[in-house]
Amino acid sequence: MRLPLSWLFEYCEPMMTPRDIATRLAMTGTEVGRIHRHGVDALEHFVVGKVLTAEQHPNADRLRVCTVDVGDTEPAHIVCGAPNVAAGQTVAVARPGAIMPDGTRLKKAKLRGEPSEGMILAEDELAIGTLHAGTMVLDDGLQAGQFLAEVLPIATDVLELEITPNRPDCLAVYGAAREVHAATGAPLEPAPWEGVDLGPASGIDGVTIDVRDPDLCPRFTAVAYEGVTIAESPPWLKQRLMASGQRPINNVVDITNYVMLLTGQPVHAFDRDRIAGGRLVVRRANPGEEVTTLDDQVRRMPSDGMLIEDAEGPTSIAGIMGGARSEVSGDTTRVLLEMATWDGPNILATSNALGLRTEASARFEKGLSPEATVEAQAVALELMTSLAGATRLPGWFDVGGAGPEAAVIRLREARLRSLLGIDVPRGRQIGVLRSLGFGVGEAADGLDVTVPHWRRNDVTREADVIEEIARLAALEELPATLPRNRPGARLTWSQRVRRRAEDVLVGRGVQEIAGWSFAAPPLLDRLRLAGEAAMRAVVVLENPMSEDESILRPTLMGSLLDAARHNLAHGAERVALFDSGTVYLAGADDGLAHEHHGLGVVLAGPLTPPSWRSAQAAPADFFTAKALAGAVLDTLRVPWEVRPSDHWAFLHPGRAAEVTANGQRLGFVGELHPLVAREWDLEGGAAFALNLDVIARLAPEAPEYRDVTSFPPVRQDLSLVVDDRPAADVVAIVRGAGGALLRRVETFDRFERDGEVSLALHLEFAAPDRTLTDEEVARVREKILAALAEQGVTPRG
After folding, report:
1. 2-36+159-184 and 43-153: identical CATH topology
2. 468 among the known binding-site residues?
3. Which residues form a coiled coil (predicted)?
4. Given this structure, which CATH class describes domain 43-153?
């Protein structure tokens, strides 16, 4: 909602800057989206002028050269294009240096050869209306050179409030003023409807109203006027509407919009002479029933939508938009002002079904009180008589009457202290509640709080009353305290394993994404997983939201590859992404889906940028992914190894391996298959995925520490000739034969020539209780060589 401060200050004017007002509102629960200026700026350059002469421009048929008295010793020469400008007029003038509504700063200029020292202004050039065809003609009694801001509302700051659904009362200037009053302590003027009595609701001669669905229309009021004169609204009214985001139309329509913005209660004006049969019926729409609305659109109503009809059929969509057939026009002389209360959920459903949102529907859908209709009628009564020359006819309609009796809620001091953790003085509590319009009475253990009608749907229990006190009197004074350390609030072991694994990747520059659990069936084809076995492993949803979300992801690779392509396509040179989430596979026997928490990583692009040492940057490959997977497993203290495997079709044959620990499969590591990389517009890449549920079962919760410094190790290298077998198999043989004294085995070189493969291993021997002798190491080394020889592996040379 746009809140013009010049309008707000009519009811509550805190001596604060607009930014300070916005800050105070935000700190008390009313968010301010932004502050902007409506109208002109540099106000000292806007003055009243007297047109002395208006001569035809010698070089332009549609321009006139005017001399204008602007209060200086010499008149100003101004070129004007308005057809109505004439000598003797009192006009609004912008001098050089003035800032126009669009931000343009006015300068001296030449127009078709004639100097121009300003502008004679039309209504829209001051943002106080939409008229542009002619200049504004002011009262002759004004003095030349008088500041224009003294006679016209040409500028105001505007707060854009972001009102929450539970506070429709703040969708009104007076409601916002009440909130500013409570938040700042500035005095609040009486409500504009106070003191106005509509008299008894005895009906209106010649008009009949029938509300057939009172459950959806709790209250329907109508007041009739005659002798109405349709004309332009005064500048102050137009300016307030435009500053609030409304377009002025004519005085009657402008009054309806003005009353809605001031009170929060939407208003609809019927041309009484166009109400067929003088009868209005409020009812549910029939299926497929059509209404032509004010915007000349034919709209098909949903079955539960509410209509207002006359003898010739539907004339309005209740609570949303009026109909074209009964709208106020330039010929209108009799007006029926309708103000009603509609069921909020019904208005919201109808608005969504029609795809039609209006200022009225935005208010009704949040829930307005029946009492607001009478308050708005009281404000409209004064405006209709003063601005439209109307005479109110005797009587009025009030179908349904006021809402339920105001609720009284007991506010206990002990409960207030329990929820807030601090004591709020009784006087401060009363002051806050009364400033918001609540009634307050003393009680033995606290206060009896009477809820005003405009907060009926929001404040329904003791905690709600405490919230009002907290946001206005206690929030800024709440002490900073640590939460209690309650048992059972710690992470589970599985959660700790996940966090630790994710931290390892983040610490190495891998960025996290959050992939979607749903996937499209073509994902399997793109990953080269299509086939009967693959389809049997997929969990298919019975009631998917769309075809593209009809299966549960069987792997994390889909979302990771999508994110990699998106980032590379938007300028990233390299990507390193991980996703940590649930993976779903169909059950083989019990029909239930099998789930596990997976950790997946995709790497694409060069590892490092080119440099003078290496013009060609190394791309991410198998060993990059293996190193990252190893870092995760080593941090979790899970002993692991990799073995070649072509089990995963989306990985490059010969450049893929399975990761295992104690004979259990943990996942895979490898380079992307070229065809898969091409599907995602990647130039290669590497990936790995691990089953964190299995890893959590294998990872030790309590780490064991060993002394590594007391007795020095013995380090030796071993060069072997092997057939074309995985190095992991050779390392396994060495470990098995080395026993407890062989502390570490690493492969540090591999050489192949003429079909012969050489492996170089680094061995490290150590004992926890002594320094090993050469003889002890030699015996272990001989056992290792003997075990290798049995498997056809011999020492080189």
Report:
1. no
2. yes
3. none
4. mainly beta
CATH 3.30.70.380 fits 714-795, yes or no: yes
On whether the CB atoms of residues 45 and 97 are closer than 8 A, the answer is yes
In this structure, which CATH number among 3.30.479.20, 3.40.50.10860, 3.30.70.980, 3.30.56.10 belongs to the domain 2-36+159-184?
3.30.56.10
290 known ligand binder: no
How far apart are the C-alpha atoms of 766 and 668, rounded to whole Å?
Answer: 33
Amino acid at 722: V
Q: By the 8 A CB rule, do 628 and 509 touch?
A: no
477 is in an annotated binding site: no
pLDDT of residue 616: 74
Domain range summary for the chain, segments of one domain joined by + = 2-36+159-184, 43-153, 208-399, 408-475, 493-698, 714-795
Q: What angle do CA 451, 454, 456 make, to 5 degrees?
A: 50
Nearest Cα residue to 348 out of 295, 299, 304, 282 = 304
What b/e sequence results for 267-303 when a residue is b if at least 16 CB atoms lie within 10 Å of its CB, and e otherwise?
bbbbbbebbeebebbbbbbeeebebebbeeeebebbe
* pTM listed for this prediction: 0.66
- Return the pLDDT at 662: 87
Q: Consult the annotation and say whether 74 binds a ligand.
A: no
What pLDDT score was predicted for residue 214? Answer: 95
The pLDDT of residue 588 is: 58
Write the CATH number of the domain with boundaries 493-698: 3.30.930.10
* Residue 637 bridge partners (DSSP): none
CB 201, CB 209: distance < 8 Å = no
Looking at domain 408-475, its CATH class is: alpha beta
Mark the ranges of the chain whose per-residue pLDDT is less than 70: 483-489, 532-535, 588-591, 708-709, 797
Residue 434 tokens read as 């009364």
Which stretches within 426-473 are classed as H helix? 426-435, 462-469
Distance CA 90, CA 78 (A): 14
Dihedral over alpha carbons 377, 380, 386, 387 (to 10 degrees): -150
Can you name the CATH fold of 208-399?
Phenylalanyl-tRNA Synthetase; Chain B, domain 3 (3.50.40)
| Both tokens assigned to 138 | 């002011």
State how far the Cα of 478 lies from the Cα of 467, in Å rounded to an integer: 13
